[in-house]
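Look over what follows to help learners.
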Amino acid sequence: MATREATWDYRDDHHERFARTYYRAFSDCVVSSIGVGTYLGEPTDAADEGYHDAIVQALESGVNVVDTAINYRCQRSERVVGDAIDDADVDREAVLVATKGGFVGFDGDRPADPGQYIREEYLDSGIVDPDDLALGQHCIAPDYVDDQLDRSLDNLGLDAIDLYYIHNPETQLETKSREDVYDQLEATFTRLEERAQAGDVRHYGVATWEAFRVGPDHESYLSLPEVVSRARAASDAAGTDATHLRAIQLPFNVYMADAFTVESHEGADGPQSALWFANDAGLDVFTSASIMQGKLAAEMPDEVEAELDGETRAQRAINFARSAPGVTTSLVGMGSPAHVQENVDAGTFEPLGAGAFDAVFE
């Protein structure tokens, strides 16, 4: 797993070409504020090759955060991440590897009958209780997450995962009450605390799409304070000294800034946005959709773009995302080597200061 010594050595090897604050603290490690995302693309050998070469290039260029999930491209993204880490001229212990479990992932390609695959692989085998399967594709029950974590370790070829996310738990709200979802999160957090004690994961977190950036009356809302409380209860149940809950992931960009603007989480002094609550609670924030799957490379509000540094619009969009308060790393999809250097070079420009960032919303 990633270590303090190796990540600091990595930072020392690369930091001179980047602007101030490009590398940021995560636990006792230091990580790049730009990370590799691996969501997009088809489950093909050609896409595998593109991702492999892009990840190797990024790792050798100053990016030491790679984010994936077991369901991305039918488990191929995890497997490519593992191969790229092996092939890159970089110490494994210098790289923060994050993955996720929740959505059912097919194996290598999409089956002709997805429902049959899920029945045979997960329901008939007893890995998933039918009552825990939401929308026929999502589960966060402890035994299922246990199974998925083991598969991810095998896919990645790693002894331990640095950051393991519960993936979009708000999906469970389609079939369960909010209280039932919190209860299931607590049970699964307890299992992850046990896996952390066993050395299989270093930290865990919650990756969401809507849950933390909508108001309490929204059907997808989950309370970040309640999630933190459930993690503390899980730590007590597992007998760990402190919770291993360390991070959240959510979308954040110029057009999707709800995590900063929507105050829906009750803090010590009243309602707070997800970013500010996470900051006060000591949680790291990893942002997804930093350039909206390329859309921000084509269009951005003039008044916002004028405040941002970067040679290209994509670089300015990345720098907006990593300027937000409390953000550790902004993830950018890097499915081919073509745009890796442009994305990485965004880190050679200063992000917005706190005052300038606030002014964008005035």
Remarks:
- The chain has one domain: 4-360.
- The radius of gyration is 19 Å.
- Residues 178-197 form the longest helix (20 residues).
